[in-house]
From TrEMBL:
Residues 1-23 form the signal peptide. It comes from Shewanella gaetbuli. Pfam families: DcaP. InterPro entries: DcaP, Porin_dom_sf. This is DcaP family trimeric outer membrane transporter. Keywords: Signal.
Length: 384
């Protein structure tokens, strides 16, 4: 019955288009269903139920809640996702592509008491016309193809650029050049709550080149230049300052027989939210209210080994460090984050995967306080 309804829906949509569009437009549905069971041990007490850290590893969220128990278990199917794609061949050899994808992560608008209902969120929503892409998708500064095959939602979160946002991108061969949404994150002078500013009219400018080498090795080198800008009133203080940030990131996938080695290495001043899920801010305000950029660097390495056609494992180590000036930032800001992963995955058939993964993470603030997380995760995934 479901197949008949889907066929009727598609047929109706096609009848509303021209005859040539019917013949030249391809429509595909994709995504996957994923269920996770996570046994977590937080060194300083577990975050409350529904907190972001209880969904996946987010650097900076594992310091714990004093008085809470250390060990918790979470069941979820929130990573499940759905996407829809169309590809149309137009007259003159032009190609038009549309893509939208939703999942149910990061929200706190549901609960685990009765129905576990969570709102869908947009992951990707873009249109491509020949070499141009407009809409929301992965930042050009990130190479998602280099991410390790981990069960954790991001996997190596502290060592990788990881941003999805609106952009305008031009692609030509191995080159990608983009103007992307700017957003500045700052630490107040002496420390305190994060200042998030959307001031300024200059977009983030990113360029990337993808290399294809002999033997199947794929590398990418990306660079970013961005304006950090704040123009707002904080209490009785008028903030009006701007500064230039920049960064570079090298990522790659190197085949080793059937196995592969993945890595990313990133350095920059004023990168802020582009690295480690905004574990550190892009800059800090000095006593005069001017922005001073924060230097940061991070990376990960991951080796995936195939034990057989159906069994495989990934071994991943990831890390990030921010070079704060405690005289400006205070001691309560995030300084470093490290995590390690080892897993065993089994695919009895290509679309179906069962797996178990152990991860350990350690976060440290500038004043020496830290938090740690040990997690064993079991997952079942069916790719649509």
């Amino acid at each position: 019955m479901k197949k008949l309804k889907l066929a009727a829906l598609i047929s109706g949509a096609m009848l509303a288009t021209s005859g040539s569009a019917q013949a030249e437009t391809q429509m595909t549905f994709g995504g996957y269903i994923k269920a996770d069971v996570m046994f977590s041990d937080y060194g300083n007490g577990a975050p409350d139920s529904g907190s972001l850290s209880r969904q996946f590893y987010v650097p900076g969220t594992i310091y714990g809640v004093e008085g809470n128990g250390n060990q918790v278990v979470d069941f979820q199917a929130r990573e499940s996702r759905f996407n829809f794609k169309t590809v149309t061949d137009l007259d003159g050899g032009h190609k038009l592509t549309g893509f939208i994808e939703l999942d149910f992560m990061t929200h706190t608008d549901g609960n685990e008491r009765v129905s576990n209902s969570y709102s869908p969120r947009i992951r990707h929503a873009f249109v491509s016309y020949d070499n141009w892409t407009i809409g929301q998708t992965w930042t050009t500064f990130q190479n998602p193809g280099a991410l390790p095959e981990n069960l954790d939602f991001v996997g190596a979160a502290d060592g990788t650029p990881f941003v999805r946002q609106a952009l305008v991108k031009y692609t030509n061969g191995g080159w990608q050049i983009a103007l992307e949404n700017p957003e500045t994150t700052l630490t107040p002078n002496g420390g305190g709550g994060r200042i998030t500013s959307g001031s300024g009219v200059i977009p983030d400018v990113i360029a990337r080149y993808n290399f294809k080498l002999d033997g199947g090795t794929a590398l990418s080198l990306a660079g970013i230049v961005r304006q950090l800008d704040v123009e707002e009133i904080q209490g009785t203080t008028q903030l009006d300052s701007s500064e230039v940030g920049y960064g570079v990131s090298l990522a790659g996938v190197i085949p080793i027989g059937k196995d592969d080695f993945k890595f990313t290495a990133t350095y920059g001043e004023g990168l802020g939210r582009y690295m480690a899920l905004n574990y550190a801010n892009a800059g800090v305000l000095d006593a005069d209210g001017d922005i001073s950029t924060i230097t940061s660097y991070g990376g990960f390495v991951s080796y995936r080994h195939w034990w057989s056609e159906q069994w495989r494992s990934s071994f991943t180590v990831s890390g990030f460090t921010a070079d704060n000036d405690p005289m400006l930032t205070g001691g309560a800001v995030n300084k470093s984050a490290y995590s390690g992963y080892v897993n065993l995955l089994y695919s009895p058939s290509k679309p179906l995967t069962f797996g178990v993964e152990y991860m350990h993470a350690l976060n440290e603030r500038e004043n020496g306080t830290d938090g740690d997380l040990n997690r064993i995760m079991f997952s079942a995934k069916y790719a649509l």
